[in-house]
Design brief:
elongated, alpha/beta, 7 helices, 10 strands, 30% helix, 5-stranded mixed beta sheet, single chain
């Protein structure tokens, strides 16, 4: 039995933003484990890959969208055992995640369950959503001698204020339910030269907002990335 699976970053949403390497691995896989966070069966990861592989190869696995650590731990352990069973059947297994595996991906939880049972992982990087977002607003994230950071939208806006003093650009992910907090911060902060919110970057329903001048809808936080440029950033 080959105790190895592939883990693939499949990009921000546009199916054409899958790398050639990831696509080749997908097409050679027998089983493609695809996370599903919606009980109704909707999955962006499934939407991205379904044009490239037969649906019969896609194994959907539901992860509840909550912070119940015990339940999630149980689900990841259960999936690790299922994957081990696929490998015992000599199946070639891949796991897909949107964006890249190294940036706020839930795959790292699964990997911790695979390691103790001796299953190795070969990873294939993907295009993260903030790179797609920066290209959509036609702005550089950084230029020579500048620095930037990528953060999850914090509970305290004081953290953002501090980051603007140390970085020319801040990329904020996982805005979602904290959108109003972000809007309030941008409204009152005097250190921001430019700011954008990019919702569903690269997807047909993508929306782009200027955080300094546009009226931002309440529902614009899901799958959104904010990019803030400090006053210190070069043009």
């Amino acid at each position: 039995m080959q105790k190895m699976i592939y883990a693939l970053g499949i990009g921000p949403g546009d199916p054409e933003l899958i790398t050639l390497k990831a696509l080749n691995v997908l097409k050679n896989s027998d089983i493609i484990v695809t996370p599903q966070s919606d009980k109704n069966g909707r999955s962006l990861a499934k939407d991205i890959i379904s044009g490239y592989v037969p649906l019969s190869k896609i194994y959907m696995y539901y992860f509840p969208m909550n912070n119940n650590k015990d339940l999630l731990d149980e689900k990841y352990s259960e999936l690790a055992i299922t994957i081990e069973q696929f490998l015992k059947e000599n199946k070639k297994v891949s796991y897909v995640t949107i964006g890249d595996l190294s940036i706020y991906s839930t795959f790292n939880y699964l990997e911790k369950k695979l390691q103790p049972i001796g299953i190795k992982v070969e990873k294939v990087p993907g295009i993260p959503s903030f790179i797609a977002a920066a290209n959509r607003i036609d702005e550089n994230i950084v230029v020579k001698e500048e620095s930037f950071c990528v953060v999850e939208m914090p509970n305290s806006i004081n953290k953002l204020d501090s980051l603007l003093e140390n970085f020319s650009t801040i990329v904020i992910m996982k805005v979602h339910k904290k959108l109003n907090c972000l809007k309030e911060f941008v409204k009152n902060c005097k250190k921001i030269k430019k700011g954008f919110l990019i919702e569903r970057a690269s997807l047909p329903e993508e929306r782009v907002f200027d955080l300094l001048s546009d009226e931002i809808p309440e529902n614009a936080g899901y799958l959104s990335t904010a990019i803030l440029y400090s006053e210190a950033k070069n043009e």
